[in-house]
Amino acid sequence: MTAPAGAASAPDGPGPPHTTSPSGLFHRPLPRPHAALRLVCLPHAGGGTSVFRDWPARLPADVELVAVRLPGRESRIRERPFTSWTTLVDVVADALVREVPAPYVLFGHSLGGMLAYELTMRGASTAPPSGAAPPAPQLPERLILAGCRAPDVPSPHPGLHDVPRDRFAADLAALAGSPPEVLRNRALLGLLEPMLRADLELAQTWPWREPLPLPVPLTVFDASDDVMAPPEAVAGWRRYAPLGVRAHHLSGGHFTLHEDPERFLTLLRGELLPAAGRVPTR
Predict the structure, then answer these.
(1) Which residues touch 97 (CB under 8 Å, ≥6 apart)?
(2) CA 194 to the chain's CA centroid
(3) What is the DSSP code (8-state) at residue 79?
(4) Which of 92, 91, 9, 7 is nearest to 53 (CA)?
(5) What residues are paired with 218 via a beta bridge?
(6) Is the peptide bond before 207 cis (omega within 30 degrees of 0)?
(7) What would the mean pLDDT of 256-281 be, rounded to a whole number?
(8) Mean pLDDT, rounded, of the chain
(9) What percent of the chain has pLDDT over 70?
(10) In Å, what is the CA distance from 196 to each residue of 1, 8, 80, 174, 225?
(11) How far apart are CA 42 and CA 68, in angstroms?
């Protein structure tokens, strides 16, 4: 569930011109201010915006990628990471309304998928002030989830965030995708440990309230050898998708979308074109 190699690095690497929103949450690797659609991407536990660095050039030209950078990683590494679902959802949802113009699609991988679901439900349940007219819900055009178990499927690694320090690296090594260079480097692991523990705590304590059906259409991706979110665990999302679900099956493990992105991004483009008001060409 933690980051593949390079994804948990502290600073941002070199790249094309980019912008970061006032809140620091939203990073645009390739700004497209006149885009017809925005793809808001939420990474897996331990991940940052760098995992989406190469995606913008492979997306349709009228889609702008907006990557979410939570505290505790990359340029925000000195900030305290979130451990409370209530606070996390409140902060990100409020910033999303202020800083990301609609229409947009929410994409989340693993822990990012859990957060994408919670943001969608928050948008559907925002209550108006007393006596005010109900606001239009701030909802994505579609929710897209990869490697994310359904809410009623238990975590495969409960309690990992709370193990003693001398066991933490060894337990992380057992998880697919934990970078060996991070696990071997005591100083780097010590720097990243608070963020990794916080992300794992969020993943292992979700859902934090009774899950409800989605108010938007859903797309899910599973992978044949994913031990963190096996295909049967991802298939459970059908129980929460009354407006329909499209499912795509990939080969590989939990990080196949980053390790072999061509097939995944081809399918993702097909999901985005209808949301941008165009017919898929695939």
Answers:
(1) 138
(2) 19
(3) S
(4) 7
(5) 143, 245
(6) yes
(7) 82
(8) 87
(9) 84
(10) 10, 9, 12, 14, 23
(11) 5
pLDDT digits (tens, 9 = 90+) for 184-216: 788 888 889 999 999 999 999 999 999 999 999
Lowest mean pLDDT among 12-16, 57-61, 137-141, 220-224: 12-16
The pTM for the full model equals 0.87
Q: How far apart are CA 126 and CA 138, in angstroms?
A: 8
How many Cα neighbours within 13 Å face the side chain of 92?
Answer: 30
Q: At residue 273, does pLDDT exceed 90?
A: no
Q: List, in order, residues 6 or more apart from 221 with CB less than 8 Å away.
A: 144, 145, 146, 147, 234, 247, 248, 249, 250, 257, 264, 267
Pairwise CA distance, residues 148 & 11, whole Å: 27
Any residues with CB less than 8 A from the CB of 34 and at least 6 apart, and which?
A: none
Give the position of tokens 């409140």: 90
